[in-house]
Amino acid sequence: MENLINRITIIHEICHGKPTIRGLRYPVENILELMASGMTIEELLADYPDLEREDFLACLDYASKLVQVKSIQMISRSNLVEISRSDIADINNAKGIINPVQNIHGVTILSDM
Fold first, then answer.
1. pLDDT at site 12
2. I need a surface site. Which of 47, 48, 104, 109 has the fewest CB within 10 A?
3. Region for 69 from its dihedrals, namely left if φ exceeds 0, alpha if ψ lies in -120 to 50, beta otherwise
4. pTM of the predicted model over 0.85
């Protein structure tokens, strides 16, 4: 079975780098708002024929991972975590797409570098 979170991408040139579905111009936050308003996956599929059921499930999976964060801290120069080039290579792929939820040295990274 496919890892649903891989359907959520962050690409600098699309939607100002916000998480989107499969690199398309469908921000995850908009889909989550529609689902929170009570729309069913069947209604969303009818309104967005180029998306698939798994895309909507991926949005829910993404949201569930965000709320699993143990703590959120303000990032400043004084508390930056040193990340090696190999760690960055693990995050980035050749197209500049990253998985929006990464865990490096125990620190959850929610966006790209």
1. 86
2. 47
3. beta
4. no
